[in-house]
Amino acid sequence: MEKILTTLLIFSLFTGFLAFLLTLAKKTIGNYGIMKVTINEETEIEMEGGDTLLSGLTEEKIFIPSACGGKGSCGYCKVTVESGGGEILPTEFGYVTPEERELGVRLSCQLKVKEPIAISIPEELFNVKEFHPTVTAITDLTPNIKHLIFTFPQGEEISFKAGQYVQLRAPKYPGNHEEVFRAYSIASSPTEHNKLELIIGLVPDGICSTYVHKHLSVGDEVAMTGPYGDFYYQESTREILMVAAGTGMAPILSILHQLKAMNSERRAIFYFGARHEEDLFFLERMKEFESDLISFEFIPSLSKPHRETDWKGQLGRVTTCLQRDLMDPCEREAYLCGSPRMIDSIVEVLIEKGIPEEFIYYDKFS
User: Fold this and answer.
1) Contact 113, 50 (CB under 8 A)
2) Hey, is 184 helix, strand or coil?
3) pLDDT given for residue 16 in this prediction
4) What's the pLDDT at 12?
5) What is the Cα–Cα distance from 54 to 62, expressed in whole angstroms?
6) Which of 87, 244, 269, 336 falls between 20 and 30 A from 24, CA-CA?
7) What are phi and psi of 329, to 5 degrees?
8) 341: which DSSP letter?
9) What percent of the chain has pLDDT over 90?
10) pLDDT below 70 — which residues of the chain?
């Protein structure tokens, strides 16, 4: 026992000494002072030298998309560096293409500001805000998918385009020792500014989805930032083709709300893919949209219906349905939301069918 205690004491003294050295190094060798960051040639902020660009921007309430919370594992937090910033790091190679490197694109979560730096970011990111709404309803849609309604406090409103997303913060909870942000598409109408709906599926070992499914309750206040994203409804006269599976229904719902608010008469078809009957949801809502929108049709399709089922709807993957059903697609535009693999296969079908690539809009998520 004495030997064990002695070993623990030596180990504690050693780790404490290392921590002291690291702190001392940060205050001396790693002390870069206050650094200036110039944004889009006109906005200047100051941040602590040596901190990541992402954290410095967040401190100034400039929210760059980051689904992994700054760990360099999502590749969302890209900015274009005009000057300064040093060489791109090996940790960025997997997320920044050679073409982007030529343009100066970097991951802001990996870039530590050690000298004055000038960057460019999309102007719309200046409109991204932090919100603190309260959960006012949670409903189980399937065993693994929940529908949540958030209500904003008086004086706080959100404006977004149908199809965009927000980032929800998962705080620390039993079994999770870090705060993370995760991106979720908005499912509600862009005409409603004091409430917001999300559809969130449970991801195995997912920090944020576990927080939502296992720990979040009605009445809880949450933190979220947004809106983000360049996937949103486009005004035109082309017929609309929408395809989604699972929680990918969320941005499509928001687009349908937009069409309803506009009393749109555009021809629109929504293919929704699911494996089994129990994976389908919001069927009544879809009927209401079919009633409210004179040119809208909802087509659910099951890829693996149960043998004993009396399902009389479409069968097969949505790609099979599209190959079978899609006629005269040239005057259409498509909105797709689902996994990268699903999106890639659908885009291939649509291009083969003749939909111009520039009219195929998609939101890939994993």
Assistant:
1) yes
2) strand
3) 61
4) 60
5) 9
6) 87
7) -85, 0
8) H
9) 67
10) 1-30, 67, 69, 329, 366
Instruction: Please report how many Cα atoms fall inside a 13 Å half-sphere around the Cα of residue 344, on the Cβ side.
Output: 4
Cα of 262 vs its chain's centroid, Å = 26
Alpha helices (runs of H) in the chain, residue ranges in sequence order: 2-27, 53-59, 98-103, 207-210, 249-261, 283-292, 318-325, 340-353
Nearest CA to 246 out of 166, 337, 364 is that of: 337
Cα(95)–Cα(107) distance, integer angstroms? 8
- CA distance linking residue 75 with residue 83, whole number of Å: 21
The pLDDT of residue 128 is 92
Confidence (pLDDT) at 177: 86
Order of all β-strands in the sheet with 129-131: 129-131, 224-228, 165-170, 180-185
Element spanning 170, H or E: strand 165-170
Enter the tokens of residue 126. Answer: 């200046």
Helix (H, G, I), strand (E, B), or coil: what is residue 139?
strand
Identify which of 254, 279, 28 has the alpha carbon closest to the alpha carbon of residue 161. 254
The one-letter code for the residue type at 270 is: F
Q: How many C-beta atoms lie closer than 10 Å to residue 239's C-beta?
A: 17
